[in-house]
Amino acid sequence: MTTDDSTTTTVYTDDDADASYIDGKTVAVLGYGSQGHAHAQNLAESGVDVVVGLREDSSSRDAAEADGLQVETPRDAAEAADIVSVLVPDTVQPTVYEEIEPVLDPGDTLQFAHGFNVHYNQIRPAEGVDVTMIAPKSPGHIVRRNYERGEGTPGLLAVYQNATGEATQEALAYAQAIGCTRAGVVETTFREETETDLFGEQAVLCGGVTSLIKQGYETLVDAGYSPEMAYFECMNEMKLIVDLMYEGGLGEMWDSVSDTAEYGGLTRGDVVVDEHARENMEEVLEAVQDGTFAREWITENQAGRPSYDQLRKAEKAHDIEDVGEELRGLFAWADDAPTDEQDATP
Ligand code: NAD
Ligand code: MG
Ligand code: MG
Ligand code: MG
Ligand code: MG
């Protein structure tokens, strides 16, 4: 365990995990999607008893059985388990929780990969159960692939309710069994994980970056440049730049681009994403913190997702999607995942 003095962040590794906290226990993995399939298979290969919980009519049943796992209904799986890992979609979790609550015993553990439902009180865990989170910072197929290669996936650990006094140790043993402690597990809280996750995906990652790309593309096309050129400049090259930052931070990116790109970027970046953008970000963060966004999203789901469907349609209809599809069809690089050989020369 290392603690960074400047931030008091605790990072756990394999040395901190003690498998005896999960040995002999049964883990019910509810859901067999992105995270579920990875947790279930990694746990099983680490020697943990796993039972997958899926509805009778779930299309994932075949996949889980083909992977050699025992499949039960969510309720039966939870009843048989000491640890119930809730890996169905966040919007479905409250309903599934109602089904399994009656079969949770004192001392059992409710284990999550995201804090939304617990933090915003959509699930109110029974007293007497431990409530923990191991949230890999990767999609499930990467969690699985890293484990198979003997590598790890960084993750987060949080404890919301520690009824037994052993919640942290058990969560660490779980993190080890899915491969996270090989890479490092950062301690956080349900609140911090939920709020930073929502803010990140809204303001920077999914929302911010797509708006930046679309507005850049539109600016060039509206000024008379070709959509193909606009696509390359504003969308395709994004990956090359992000890969450099992922590998070596902002510094490696600035070092790799031309001096002209560096000077232009350093002088014009804040012109585009200016103080207004920061104020807008603060507004977005406030709506996450005060629960406005959560209420909106819950209501939207209860109404059958009318606005969400509209927004999805509009996004699909954007010109950049057609141009991109054509161009990606023409170039071989679209099939090759790694871009290490490609040069980023904005
Ligand atoms: P997913 O959408 O990939 O899969 C969910 C699975 O749940 C489905 O495959 C199905 O097996 C089952 N399911 C779907 N609808 C159901 C229903 N109505 N009733 C019962 N079961 C149903 O979900 P995911 O992305 O793996 O997310 C699971 C949890 O992991 C969420 O809390 C999510 O926030 C968290 N998480 C996801 C990622 C990621 O990259 N996908 C990363 C970190 C944490
Ligand atoms: Mg039980
Ligand atoms: Mg327990
Ligand atoms: Mg998220
Ligand atoms: Mg260029």
From TrEMBL:
Explain how, and how many, cofactor molecules are bound.
Binds 2 magnesium ions per subunit.
Do you know which Pfam families this protein is assigned to? KARI_C, KARI_N
Instruction: Kindly list the positions annotated as binding Mg(2+) 2.
Output: D197, E233, E237
Where substrate binds, per the record, is at: S258
Boundaries of each KARI C-terminal knotted domain copy? 189-334
Q: Which PROSITE patterns match?
A: KARI_C, KARI_N
Q: Which SUPFAM superfamilies match?
A: 6-phosphogluconate dehydrogenase C-terminal domain-like, NAD(P)-binding Rossmann-fold domains
Return the broad EC class: oxidoreductase
| EC number in record | 1.1.1.86
Q: Which reaction does it catalyse?
A: (2R)-2,3-dihydroxy-3-methylbutanoate + NADP(+) = (2S)-2-acetolactate + NADPH + H(+); (2R,3R)-2,3-dihydroxy-3-methylpentanoate + NADP(+) = (S)-2-ethyl-2-hydroxy-3-oxobutanoate + NADPH + H(+); (2R)-2,3-dihydroxy-3-methylbutanoate + NAD(+) = (2S)-2-acetolactate + NADH + H(+)
Q: Where is the KARI N-terminal Rossmann domain?
A: 9-188
Q: Which GO terms describe its molecular function?
A: ketol-acid reductoisomerase activity; magnesium ion binding
Catalytic residue list: H114
| Top-level taxon of the source organism | Archaea
Where do the annotations place NADP(+) binding? Y32, G33, S34, Q35, R55, S58, S60, G140
Task: Give the protein's cofactors.
Answer: Mg(2+)
Q: Which GO terms describe its biological process?
A: isoleucine biosynthetic process; L-valine biosynthetic process
Instruction: Provide the residue positions that the database annotates as binding Mg(2+) 1.
Output: D197, E201
**The entry's keywords:** Amino-acid biosynthesis, Branched-chain amino acid biosynthesis, Magnesium, Metal-binding, NADP, Oxidoreductase
Q: What does this protein do?
A: Involved in the biosynthesis of branched-chain amino acids (BCAA). Catalyzes an alkyl-migration followed by a ketol-acid reduction of (S)-2-acetolactate (S2AL) to yield (R)-2,3-dihydroxy-isovalerate. In the isomerase reaction, S2AL is rearranged via a Mg-dependent methyl migration to produce 3-hydroxy-3-methyl-2-ketobutyrate (HMKB). In the reductase reaction, this 2-ketoacid undergoes a metal-dependent reduction by NADPH to yield (R)-2,3-dihydroxy-isovalerate.
The Swiss-Prot or TrEMBL record describes its family as follows: Belongs to the ketol-acid reductoisomerase family.
Write down what this protein is called. Answer: Ketol-acid reductoisomerase (NADP(+))
Organism, as annotated: Haloarchaeobius litoreus
